[in-house]
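[Automated response] Your request has been received and processed.

Submitted sequence:
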Amino acid sequence: MQLKFLKIFCDIVRRRSFSCAAHENSISQSSASQVVHHLEEQLGVKLLDRSKRPFVLTPEGKRYYDGSLQLVSQYAQLEEEVQTLHDEAARRLLVASIYSVGLAHMSVFTRQFLAKYTKAQVRLEYLHPDRVYEVVENGEVDLGLVSYPEESRALVSLPWRDEPLVAVCHPEHRLASQRRISLEELNGESFVAFEAGLRIRSEIDRSLMAGKVEVDVAQEFDNIETMKRAIEVNEGVSILPQPTVAREIALQSLVAIPLKEKLVRPLGLVHRRDRDLGEIGQQFMQLLRADTKFVGNAKPATISRTRKTRKKLLTR
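Generated structure:
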């Protein structure tokens, strides 16, 4: 039995009118009458007593109306629940970010985005770079924010912006008073490095090698927040993305020195090729890529291991 027929029958009884029910359901009055006739034929009973004006329900019709009304109501509720779930899913965006991008930029940006798109739901999680690629590829999140973005068969990458890399040191370090330095001036310095295996470590190593610069790697970390804490206690100098030290520069706990060589860290977005980001995802990407402000009010991230021994590194 079609639920549409049951709804029409219930509307006829509720309105006590074939014409009104027909209008509500965008059918002709004749079609509404045929629906009732079809139901009566199928059941083998009279549902309406048409000898009276207006018509009245027979005892069988009353029972059938009560049961049909319950079914129609339950189905309408089910449709609403399913549509609500769909709408919530369409408004929800799951984003994974590397620590430095998320902590330096995303808190302020997300608040601005949610203020503009009040029905959106954005959940952020901060992960190791390899994990960001993994959760995006596995479909656990919709969008990934990474440095040195890479494409693959499964993933599309989009450029976001380039962040200048600068030398960072303690305010009492001998280089702190310099307005600009070359990589060569870092030769022999105690160095707070990114953990081996990270793309940014490889890029910095390559630049140092090109300048024939040898640094003394004192400590290695997998996140910028811990690197900054090490520099603040004068454990060494480092090369970091300028926006990530904005807060410390403002507090005068660190000094950032521009490099004569142009070094940048490219930031980008990755998502699955076969997944539609939907309206919210597109709006998030567009607004993010239009955002050119650097945000530096970061919070501490997960601390990595510290190397206990110092080693000499002639960069690759």
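Summary generated for your ticket: The longest strand covers residues 155-169. Residues 294-316 have pLDDT under 50 and may be disordered.
If you did not submit this request, please reply to this message.
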